[in-house]
Design goal:
The complex is a heterotrimer of chains A (410), B (237) and C (301). Chain A is of the alpha/beta class and 410 residues long. Chain A is 40% helix and 17% strand. Chain A has two domains: 204 residues, Rossmann fold, CATH 3.40.50.2300; 148 residues, Response regulator (Rossmann fold), CATH 3.40.50. Chain A has a seven-stranded mixed sheet, with helices on both faces. In chain A, strands 3-2-4-5 form a four-stranded parallel sheet, with helices on both faces. Chain A has a two-stranded parallel sheet with strand order 1-11. In chain A, helix 4 runs parallel beside helix 5 and helix 9 runs parallel beside helix 10. Chain B is of the alpha/beta class. The longest helix of chain B is centred in the C-terminal third of the chain and has 17 residues. Chain B is globular and about 45 Å long. Chain C has one domain. Chain C is 73% helix and 0% strand. Chain C is built from eleven helices and no strands. Chain C is globular and about 65 Å long. The chains are: A alpha/beta (410), B alpha/beta (237), C mainly alpha (301). Chains in contact: A-C, B-C.
């Protein structure tokens, strides 16, 4: 009997002790807190209330998907016990809830905790406690830093990578570019901007002729758009959240500014951006995508979309299918299940982290064709490829090859 | 003849403190009655109690009709014009607006117009100050405005709370002279509260003397005035 | 120069948004002497109601008329049911109630209609006209409606007995009662009218900033700034104040950017718009506490 087994034996219940004693095969099973023969406890925080509560649908979708997994027999015979608390998108509240999850509920790991501010607030704590903080729901670039933060990993393409991809596309496709940027004045905006500048390269930074920032408290970005138009820019990089993106698109049309328009993925929504802004005004906008839009007819026959629709119909019949949160939640939850399957009976925190960092060419449902999840002990950026698309009518027209940035930009 | 105002066993309270201990008196139509007494005797409280501006127990009949328990504004609408302590001017409004607010409850346009003219006649200075912000009027002018506001209600009874307070003697005389005219010409009964007993007794035809929330003495104004003992012990002159 | 004109025009358009909401704030202040922190959320909620009716096929103006009336009733209800028991409560308790109302209407809207932004139709025809490169038809319409509302309100408070009575009730409730004014109802009426104006404000703002539960949060801040600069007790002042704040914030950013371009020195820019606007408010209030157009209350004893 190894040391680890003895520890498990001492900590475990009588029933497990008996099982261990009786069955020599069980020597292969390894558990940390939160995992047993029958259960895997996963913790999560989401904004179910407050301003950002729209994102709460991600947590609800994940919960529904884990129910489906359990209904189908669980993972290697274990049921998922998904404990998700409301943090109201408030970092202090998130800290409180996460401490509860780790110290009282004793979850095996955290999965897809949502929001850059909340994840930043628990970042150090999770790494001190050596509890995985997996596939966080934010695109900040700081989640892929295994040297300093071994226990934290992102999932979606990070903002900096995406910014760099746009920059490269501009350099190779727009003749004599003069770039105007509208940017939300916070970490999210700066992350995009830094990646974008890196993509341009030192020598080309002067191509940025105007940088107009806005605060989230600004009622409109009209004044910034006038400023940008008057700068003479012929390329527009639009780093805005949906409401401001819609305002910017509409205002550009109103004042007759027609640059080559790049829009960040954060606002890649017909329902929340292009329809309110005006479909006509949105034509030709270029953006980076990594997941399929289920409403797009070109995916009507793809099996993952069909499976998603069936899942939604059965487990979330009331949900609004156009809400991207359901799409996102389904895809990321599938990735999580893949990792847990790969863990086998070794459900230690170290092994969960190891398996999360060993995904090779995994095609999670909903990802665009050609986009695969790759991770390693030095690459903590699961999705680093996107495809560029342009708004065409009421759908996205993909063009060009898969753009990837497999050397993580720091 | 039915009394214009009858007050029976009136008690009033400020929080836990009782300020009136069963006051009973009555007013005949058309007369001027004065309530006298030292500071804190309960004069102002009595006026406020009649208009339900303090917590009150007791019976109050106006023109034979019980009004106790009615809201202040409803009592006012019965025809009681209260010129309060401190004058209650709407300082941010013009003189004209103050007068118009005062006539808010009335629907008889012609009557309101007539009363306007009457007010201008009593207090010509107000007519000259119509557009002026009421807060900038002198003390005497504000008192005139306060009386005019009560008049604009078209009242049958006016409750006047220390109209002489803080005013120069000449102005006080002027105001009291006009009050007598109003009483006679507009047929308005008056209940006058005054510190200045000598002045009040000149004007009034009936007087009550209050001490610590009780009526200690009543009679014709002329009798009270000529009774030196009362003057010495209660009225201080 | 071209840009300067555009920035001023765009500032006027934003100013109309602030002015509209500032009017509702003034309405409550004039009739109840309170500053209603929940005004923005009430307007937002009304705008959602209008949106809902339009979805059900009603014409914009008809929907707005219905919602203005419904909002009026909601305002009256809020006063009679929630604020009435607090008549003698300290100001702080009332502020807490306002903040509670804010939270309630905010989450209610989020729960019913969701948090995704919604397109809100403009009631004004989308036509090109001389100068339409500077300012859109909706913005012009908004400015006109704001001015019309202002004139209506001004006349109401100045010339109608009811308007006068409402002002009297707010200024000096005890005296107003002595003039036979039913003060309690005046307060409720003030709430109702403010809610109705708020409905108009919300429905005019929504086509510009898009409909979502947060849409009024920052506008309320600017609306306050406008109302305070112009004088919170003066409808005209509030409207002018709203326009001043709208134009100033654009000019500040414009001049800051210009300075940075020409000299390379960054002093102020887009990020400091709100800060500078608030500094202006504080300066104005320090120099002239009643606002630029507020009447100074003089009291003589």
């Amino acid at each position: 009997m190894t040391f680890l087994d003895r520890r498990t034996l001492l900590a475990g219940s009588g029933a497990i002790a008996l099982a261990l004693a009786l069955s020599p095969a069980s020597a292969q099973k390894k558990y940390d807190e939160g995992a047993t023969d029958t259960e895997i406890k996963i913790g999560n925080t989401n904004p179910y209330s407050g301003n950002a509560s729209a994102y709460g649908n991600i947590g609800k979708t994940i919960d529904a998907f884990f129910k489906k997994v359990n209904d189908d027999g669980g993972i290697n015979g274990r049921k998922i016990n998904f404990i998700s608390y409301d943090d109201g998108y408030s970092p202090p509240k998130a800290v409180e809830m996460v401490r509860k999850l780790v110290e009282e509920d004793k979850v095996l790991f955290l999965f897809n905790t949502l929001g850059t501010p909340s994840n930043t607030a628990i970042h150090k704590y999770m790494n001190q406690k050596k509890v995985p903080q997996l596939f966080v729901a934010t695109g900040a670039s700081k989640w892929g830093n295994p040297k300093e933060f071994h226990w934290t990993m992102g999932w979606q393409p990070d903002y900096a990578t995406e910014g760099a991809i746009y920059a490269k596309h501009i350099l190779s496709n727009v003749k004599d570019p003069k770039i105007g940027i509208l940017m939300q004045n916070d970490d999210y905006g700066k992350d995009y901007l830094n990646g974008f500048k890196q993509g341009l390269g030192k020598d080309n930074e002067k191509l940025i002729v105007e940088l107009a920032t806005y605060e989230v408290t600004d009622p409109t970005v009209d004044s910034q758009m006038i400023q940008l138009k008057n700068s003479g820019a012929n390329v527009f990089f639009n780093i805005t959240t949906p409401k401001f993106a819609a305002q910017a698109i509409k205002k550009a049309a109103e004042i007759g500014w027609k640059p080559v328009h790049y829009l960040n993925n954060v606002s890649s929504s017909f329902g929340a951006v292009f329809k309110p802004a005006g479909i006509e005004a949105s034509q030709g906008i270029i953006l980076a995508l990594y997941r399929k839009d289920p409403a797009d007819p070109q995916w009507a026959n793809s099996p993952d979309i069909a499976a998603w629709k069936a899942f939604m119909a059965k487990y979330m019949p009331q949900a609004d299918l156009r809400d991207d949160s359901h799409n996102y939640g389904y895809s990321v939850a599938n990735t999580m299940v893949e990792v847990l399957k790969n863990c086998g009976d070794n459900l230690t925190r170290e092994n969960v982290m190891k398996q999360a960092a060993s995904l090779k060419g995994y095609e999670a449902p909903m990802l665009l064709p050609g986009i695969k999840i790759n991770t390693s002990s030095t690459d903590y950026y699961p999705i680093q490829a996107v495809r560029l698309a342009r708004v065409n009518g009421e759908s996205f027209e993909l063009f060009g090859e898969v753009q990837s940035n497999e050397n993580p930009s720091q | 003849m039915v009394a214009l105002l009858e007050v029976e066993d009136l008690k009033a309270f400020y929080g836990q403190t009782q300020a009136l201990h069963g006051v009973t008196f009555s007013l005949q139509p058309g007369g001027i009655t004065t309530l006298l007494g030292a500071n804190g005797a309960g004069k102002t409280t009595t006026l406020r109690a009649i208009c339900n501006m303090v917590r009150t127990v007791g019976a109050i009949r106006f023109d034979g009709r019980p009004i106790e328990g009615l809201a202040t504004e409803e009592i006012v609408r019965c025809g009681v014009g209260h010129v309060p302590e401190g004058r209650g001017t709407f300082t941010n409004m013009s003189v004209d607006e103050n007068l118009r607010v005062a006539a808010y409850t009335r629907s008889d346009k012609a009557g309101v117009e007539r009363d306007r003219e009457m007010v201008y006649e009593y207090f010509p200075i107000l007519k000259a100050r119509l557009a002026q912000q009421a807060g900038t009027l002198s003390g005497g002018e504000q008192q005139m405005l306060a009386i005019s506001r009560a008049l604009m209600l078209g009242p049958r009874l006016m409750l006047l709370d220390e109209p002489s307070f803080g005013l120069a003697p000449l102005i006080v005389q002027e105001i009291f002279r006009i009050m007598r005219r109003i009483n006679g010409e507009a047929k308005v009964g008056m209940l006058l509260v005054e510190q200045n007993a000598a002045l009040a007794l000149e004007l009034a035809d009936h007087a009550y003397v209050l001490e610590t929330g009780r009526i200690v003495m009543s009679g014709k104004a002329s009798d009270v005035k000529s009774n030196e003992a009362i003057r010495k012990s209660y009225l201080g002159y | 120069m071209e840009q300067l004109l555009q920035q001023v025009a765009s500032g006027l358009a934003n100013g109309a948004i602030y002015a509209c909401l500032a009017l509702a704030l003034v309405m409550i202040f004039v009739s109840t002497d309170h500053i209603n922190f929940a005004q923005g959320e009430l307007s937002m909620f009304s705008a959602y109601l209008v949106w809902q009716l339009i979805q059900w096929g009603l014409n914009f103006w008809l929907a707005l008329a219905i919602v203005a009336f419904v909002s009026f009733l909601i305002g009256v209800m809020v006063e009679r049911v929630i604020l009435r028991p607090l008549h003698s409560a300290p100001v702080l308790s009332i502020v807490v109630v306002f903040i509670g109302l804010l939270a309630i209407f905010h989450s209610l809207a989020g729960a019913i209609w969701g948090h995704t932004i919604k397109d809100f139709p403009s009631p004004f025809p989308n036509i090109a006209f001389a100068g339409s490169g500077y300012i859109g038809p909706h913005q012009i319409g908004m400015i006109l409606v704001t001015i019309a509302l202002l004139v209506a309100l001004f006349s109401f408070f100045r010339f109608t007995p009811l308007g006068l009575a409402m002002r009297a009730a707010a200024q000096n409730p005890a005296s107003a009662r002595l003039a036979g004014i039913r003060v309690d109802w005046m307060l409720a009426l003030g709430w109702g009218l403010a809610a109705a104006i708020g409905a108009v404000a919300g429905s005019l703002v929504a086509p510009v900033v898009y409909l979502e539960p947060n849409m009024m949060a920052s506008i309320l801040l600017y609306g306050f700034a406008g109302a305070l600069v112009g004088g919170i007790a003066s409808p005209g002042g509030a409207v002018v104040g709203g326009f001043i704040v709208g134009v100033l914030e654009n000019l500040i950013a414009y001049l800051g950017n210009l300075l940075e371009k020409t000299t390379g020195v960054y002093i102020i820019g887009n990020g400091e718009k709100l800060t500078v606007a608030l500094i202006i408010v504080i300066t104005v209030l320090t120099l002239k506490p009643s606002g630029l157009f507020g009447h100074v209350t003089v009291k003589r004893v």
